[in-house]
Write a structure and sequence with these properties.
Blueprint: H1 5-9, H2 24-27, E1 61-68, E2 71-72, E3 76-78, E4 81-83, E5 98-104, E6 115-117, E7 120-123, E8 132-134, E9 138-140, E10 155-164, E11 168-171, E12 174-175, H3 178-181, H4 184-194, E13 200-203, H5 211-214, E14 221-231, E15 236-239, E16 243-249, E17 252-258, H6 268-282, E18 290-295, E19 301-303, E20 306-309, H7 315-327, H8 329-334, H9 347-361, H10 366-370, H11 374-382, H12 401-421, H13 423-437, H14 444-455, H15 460-468, E21 475-483, E22 486-493, E23 501-507, E24 512-517, E25 527-531, E26 538-543, E27 558-559
Parallel strand pairs: 17-18, 18-20
Antiparallel strand pairs: 1-2, 1-5, 3-4, 6-7, 7-15, 8-9, 10-14, 11-15, 12-14, 13-16, 16-17, 19-20, 21-22, 22-25, 23-24, 23-26, 26-27
The protein binds zinc ion.
């Protein structure tokens, strides 16, 4: 999901009016403060809507029949979950067939995660699926509710979609029958696009919406056949009037499908390609055959190989939304953490990699050159005592999910990368985390252990402050004294968080010195005396002179006051 990042860049976050939700049963029983709703970008409580879009939700699927190993089975439905008892226990590596017949009426707005706009359909969360059974928690059968996302098992999909012949379909998975559903011209353009860094139009502006020029048949239906391996979900989009651009990176086909009304989308193919390329080169190579994004009514949602992204008001917003949803291909599509419980491990890690990606894409502009500092600047507005919650809390219990799920974990990762481990040491460890846990289900402890082992640094102090508590940092220069001709700087840790820091010293003769102090200086308590090696009179001292740390009171960082 998007993180309302752009709303935060403006002074007043936009929020649609509440109160028109079609979810009255749920909203009446859920405390308003627990509902992030559209106000995810705001620390203010939101009332009246339970889902991310605030557009409500009418739908759900209707199960007509269930067969287990060929026999009609009893089922027990509890809200959005169903229990099936097998006729006999299933042995390890054994399999059993579950056969379900169900109906699914497509709602206009599916809680911000799917829906349709006129003839354009963006379809997801549309089929029954098996809960994850893992070796930490056993069955993960949390019911689906708006603020929590999804914890899904990896698998293979073989899907046939029959749609009107005038429709073009984009989906998770490799298209198995292009000769039946695409024209010869489109197939040859796609072959060229896969090898082209520049955009190739598969359906041009002039061709879009003209059935006779874009479809191999103009009447009846066509069936599109897709297969996918090592994916945790399957989604698709279908529309009759797409423009379709494509390009390639390292054999990966990158595609954008959009309507003529989407004025920011001619650049979208470049934004999409840069995102896939950057994340691949920096962290882990994109493992699937294509990366496709479809413009439509959904304000930003990720699925394997496919994202739904709206047309945005500015280029910066557009790049952010496109690259954020594609960043989810790494977290949680490749690294399958439990989104339902730990949004910081997907939304947070994703926001962290997106910030550096946006800085790269817009390098040399005021936006590009300042975007990475954005979470640090949000700190004072969101890290409020008594209001802030530890990252480890479940998302449905978090009041300020924008902060706790997205921006604070991104800031945590930046602090670890730039201020604690250094870029090379961090990058090697984080790459190893992705590689080790690709297509698996890491828990928080797995991440913490791997970062410690790969960096060679004990980090419990860091995780305690950033993930398990709401500790705040307030480092101070208390005073400077002279002992036996040497200057001694008396530092104090007045907050509850510990961090390493820098000390900038200006001497009376005008010379300067900068000293890096390790976090171990706080091992013996909240006071640390730094003995200045230069035998010169100290005129001025400042802790954290680069203003790199989230220090809540900078007034005490400088001596003399
Ligand atoms: Zn997201």
């Amino acid at each position: 999901m998007p993180n309302r990042h752009s709303a935060q860049l403006r002074a007043s976050p936009t929020r649609r009016p509440s109160g028109h939700s079609t979810f009255p049963r749920l909203t009446s029983t859920v405390p308003a403060r627990a509902a992030p709703g559209r106000g995810i970008g705001s620390s203010a409580p939101t009332t009246g809507c339970f889902d991310f879009s605030c557009q409500g939700f009418s739908g759900g699927l209707i199960l007509d029949s269930l067969r287990v190993a060929g026999r009609v089975s009893r089922r027990d439905v509890y809200g959005t979950t169903m229990r099936i008892d097998l006729p006999a226990p299933l042995a390890g590596n054994a399999s059993i067939d579950l056969e379900l017949v169900w109906q699914f009426r497509v709602p206009a707005q599916g809680a911000g995660r799917m829906g349709h706009d006129g003839p354009l359909y963006e379809i997801a969360q549309w089929y029954p699926r098996v809960a994850v059974y893992d070796d930490v928690r056993g069955w993960n059968h949390e019911p689906y509710i708006g603020a929590g996302e999804f914890y899904l098992e990896y698998g293979s999909f073989d899907v046939a979609l029959t749609v009107p012949a005038s429709y073009v379909v984009a989906a998770t998975g490799r298209l198995g029958n292009p000769e039946q559903v695409l024209t010869a011209t489109q197939r040859s353009r796609l072959t060229a696009a896969r090898r082209s860094a520049a955009s190739v139009a598969i359906i041009t502006k002039d061709e879009a919406g003209h059935v006779e020029r874009t479809r191999p048949a103009t009447q009846g239906t066509l069936t599109w056949h897709f297969t996918a391996d090592s994916v945790r979900d399957f989604a698709f989009a279908a529309g009759p009037n797409f423009r379709w651009d494509a390009s390639g990176y390292d054999g990966i086909l990158i595609e954008t499908l959009y309507r003529a009304s989407a004025d920011k989308w001619e650049e979208a193919i470049r934004m999409a390609r840069e995102a896939i390329k950057y994340f691949s080169e920096q962290w882990y190579r994109y493992p699937y055959s294509h990366a496709t994004t479809v413009e439509g009514p959904i304000e930003g949602m990720e699925y394997p190989m496919l994202t739904f992204v709206p047309n945005s008001p500015t280029r910066e917003d557009q790049q952010w939304a496109l690259s954020h949803e594609f960043g989810h291909e790494w977290f949680p599509m490749i690294v399958g953490s439990n989104e339902r419980l730990y949004p910081w491990m997907d939304e947070g890690f994703n926001t962290f990699i997106d910030l550096a990606g946006a800085a790269k894409y817009f390098a040399g502009t005021p936006y590009g050159d300042s975007i990475e500092v954005h979470p640090l600047h949000l700190y004072s507005d969101h890290a409020k005592p008594g209001d802030e919650q530890p990252l480890i809390e479940k998302p449905v219990e978090v009041r300020d999910l924008f902060w706790g799920g997205y921006q604070k974990p991104a800031l945590m990762m930046q602090m670890l990368r730039y201020e604690v481990l250094g870029k090379d040491r961090f990058d090697r460890a984080f790459r190893e985390y992705i590689r080790t846990w690709a297509f698996k289900h890491p828990t928080p402890a797995d991440f913490l252990r791997l970062m410690r082992d790969e960096s060679g640094m004990e980090l419990d102090w860091f995780w305690r402050d950033w993930i398990f508590t709401t500790a705040r940092l307030d480092q101070a220069v208390d005073s400077v004294s002279t002992e036996g001709g040497a200057s001694v700087i008396h530092l104090e840790n007045r907050g509850t968080m510990v961090m390493p820091t820098e000390l900038a010293i200006t001497f009376a003769d005008g010379t300067k010195s900068t000293v890096g102090l390790p976090v171990e200086m706080w091992n013996l308590g909240a006071r640390f005396n730094y003995r200045v090696p230069e035998r010169k009179r100290v005129q001025r001292v400042e802790v954290d002179p680069r203003h790199a740390l989230p220090d809540v009171d900078r007034g005490n960082n400088v001596w003399p006051r």
